[in-house]
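Tutorial, part two.
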Amino acid sequence: VVSTVVSLDLAQHHGSAVIELATTSAVSLEVGNLAMISITDPQGAAVAHTLEMGSLHFSPPAAGTVRVDYAFADHMSYDGWLAGSSVSFLWPYFCGNLYPCHSAPSDGVRLELAVTGVPPGKTAIVTPHLDADAPSYMLALAVGSYQQMMLGTTRAGTQISAYHLAGQDGSTQMGVAYLRDAFDWYEQNLGPYLFGSHAASVAVLWGPGAYGGMEHHPFWHVGADSLADPVTHVHEAAHGWFGNGVRIRCWEDFVLSEGTVSYLQAHVTGAVKGQAAEDAVWADMMLELSQAVRQRDHAAWPATCGQADVLRDLYDSIPYMKGAFFYKKVEAQIGRTAMERVLSRFYATWKGKAAGMQDMLDTIQVETGFDPGPLAQTWLRGLGIPQ
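Running the prediction step on this input gives:
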């Protein structure tokens, strides 16, 4: 799939996806529990297709583009359109419950979303047209009575803002206190942002106890319980470079996304707020790592590829925190400036593509001469908290 332009009517629960394909060979797309209506070519002629266990199979027309019209359902378990929260949630592999897709994290697609049927007085914050490949779960929308808080423009010209709901002014102001400066640091030290000239944190109401954020660039979501936490905002912003800007090769490489970004959330805090602020972030992360190890320890970077279920096997604090401390230990060996150079070189090499954690280890060694393999073995493949 080269690109997918999705149009959703929230009132009628109807959707359409115009899908540009790079092949005329047989195609299979995930459609979850979508109710299929029709598939047509650019002239409106029907395209023969079959449905089988949540998959859509067809042979593309010579033009290479099809339109799929369908109906979508409400979901309750963070796996589609959450009508009760007025927000989509497609990570990690539930995109097929909102549009025809391929959910493998290595696959990149250029996305765009348009929404109608928005209730009066509400605004839909949606994925705009993207000129760079992104993972399929990055398509997102949030609907609410949003107010925009302007945070300024980076030196590269990216407008940074935050969208919040009524009564969230104070917590939003606290949470985005240094978001613009952090985003500017990413652009200046990692490389150009791939996903447009406007980026923003968007407050969402996932429900009580649902904290953290979700990396839907350029308008990533932050749960109401984490809205006042600056680290959450700079963490999700960093996914524009790692996780979204550079996709992961398979779910076992989850640490390349979350471990790198967790390291960056501390690193950029130090860069823009000072060493004491960075030290406080590291202290909080060590506490989180200690709790995670006590609850369920496991390898942050499994030795397989394509066999792990990210929700079952990896979705806890271990890849985030062990990954972050792995980078901290590497930094202690090569220096802060060299670590920044490694991340910049890695991003320049892999932006818009999929990579694995081994590619990062290789980059560290080539760029600095330091072999990070032993540290990776103890921190990413081993158990416990290494000394």
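The longest strand covers residues 3-9. In part three we will examine how such features are distributed along the chain.
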